[in-house]
Amino acid sequence: MLLRILSLVLILAVLLPIGTFAAPAAQEERRDFRGWINSIGDSIRNIVRPSPTNSAHATSTTTPSRSSPARPSANPLLRSNNNLAAAHPLSFVPFRAAVAANSESDGDFDPATEIPSLTYLETAFGKFERKFDALPKSGEAPQLPWTSTYWPSTYDGINYRWKSPEIGSPVEKYAIAFNISSRALGNLVSKQQGIDAPWHTKQCVGDFSCASGDRCVSRRGSDVKLCVADWEGICDGWTAASIMMPEPRCAVTFNGVKFNVADLKGLMSAFFASDSGTHYYSMSMSGRCNVYNPNTDRNGYYSDPNCGDATAGMFHIFITNMLGRLQKPFAFDRETTGQVWNQPVHGYQIIKTQNLARFFAQTRLGFNYKLDPSAVKFVYVELAVKWISEVEYFDEMNLNYRDNMAALQKTLKTTSYEYVLELNAAGEIIGGGWVNASKNRQPDFMWVPTGVDKRASAFGAIKFTDLEKLWAQAVNC
């Protein structure tokens, strides 16, 4: 029986490319068909050697080399954001861990994350358009978010004396200007956003004694060295602040203390990133992936529920409505796996679209991918996302990016994503999957900063009202 199936596969592989499937867009479709033939071969091998699971996503035997479960769950900088629910119970949508796959179709939106999030967004911004042909092909925010460093935890956040060892840090400058204890404030900042954070528990003598990607660091004046991940920081605070606040243009002086642009950006970023509920946002899709090396299924997709649940359909609905229809910037985590790299998104452009027959949509997505049974049309999309990168050196933040095009160009980034959308008979997007280079490279989650509590203070000391006064001078100078 097996030999007869293999013979049939070989005959089809030879005859069909020169027959029915050699019509318009022949080369593209033939490649798709050969991919389908290969997937049949995979299925035949599974008949001989059955998969260890009955689910549509068979987990591989690969073991993640580093998942570090304790750190993400305890770390407010790593975007668990449970504190925000307490601060804004009416404005924050809690998200449960996403299910591994919908029972009806992999292409459907996730009922645990995407559906409640979309409902919340529509409550805040109005009904979202879901018809593919009615959605704009491009969009741009009217105000460009500004760049900053993410104030790495390895530098102890905004305790870092970025200008020189002799010039005070943003924390020290604020403490002097507003007559509070710089030592006490510095300790609070370090415990929330720096080296003394409670999830940094491993002591060390050098980088070699830390996990890969971690650094062995100590606070200024301390002999205690701890392992800290070099990607940790307040990128969420910078991203939110850059979306909601205009860029400061010049240094300002208050009570004899000079605040450079970098100082102001650091203080405002720390305020937005603090755990006192000073800002809130809504995730648009999926849960955060806490796994550094997720397992994959037979189609090559991540099988971990929070690493592979961001549907391309919701991504397209979100970005085309937020930027195309509403011209509102937002944030996304551009790293699919364990690390979190929040970046401000300010625009998008659809590069290419192509209608696909159901058969070839199936081929692109993988033979085991479950298409939505109510989908009647399939569209391949390549879309470029425009986002702002962080700067590597702190002194670059003193440049006026709105007026210095050379400096600005270094921070303008573009990432292209490829996916297949599933449409129903009304032309509405009901699902979709990532393909080609975008498979397992999609945004981990997306979110929108929607407000700030002007009565709040970060670390119990840095008041938004104080920062707002400094900001107004720096913006209007």
What's the short version?
The chain is α+β, with helices and mostly antiparallel strands and 477 residues long. The protein has 13 helices and 14 strands.
Ordered list of secondary-structure elements with their pairings:
Layout: H1 2-15, H2 26-48, H3 70-74, H4 82-87, H5 114-125, E1 138-140, H6 170-177, H7 182-193, E2 214-217, E3 226-229, H8 235-244, E4 252-254, E5 257-259, H9 261-273, E6 279-283, H10 312-325, E7 330-333, E8 342-356, H11 358-365, E9 377-388, H12 405-411, E10 412-423, E11 429-434, E12 446-452, E13 457-458, E14 462-463, H13 464-475
Helix pairs in contact: 1-2, 2-11, 6-7, 6-9, 8-9, 9-13
What does this structure look like?
By secondary structure, the protein is α+β, with helices and mostly antiparallel strands. The chain folds into 3 domains: 2-48; 70-147 and 277-452, no CATH class; 153-265 and 454-475, Herpes Virus-1, CATH 3.30.40. It is built from 13 helices and 14 strands. Strand 2 (214-217) and strand 3 (226-229) form a beta hairpin. Helix 1 (2-15) packs antiparallel against helix 2. The radius of gyration is 25 Å and the shape is globular.
Portion in beta strands = 15-25%
Please mark out the parts with pLDDT under 50 across 5 or more consecutive residues, or reply none. 9-107
Number of domains: 3
What oligomeric assembly is this protein in?
single chain
Distance between the termini: 81 Å
Name the structural class.
Answer: alpha+beta
Provide the helix percentage.
25-40%
Order of helices and strands: HHHHHEHHEEHEEHEHEEHEHEEEEEH
Count of DSSP-assigned helices? 13
Overall mean pLDDT stands at 77
Q: Categorize the overall geometry.
A: globular
Largest sheet: 8 strands, antiparallel
Rg to the nearest angstrom?
25 Å
Number of strands: 14
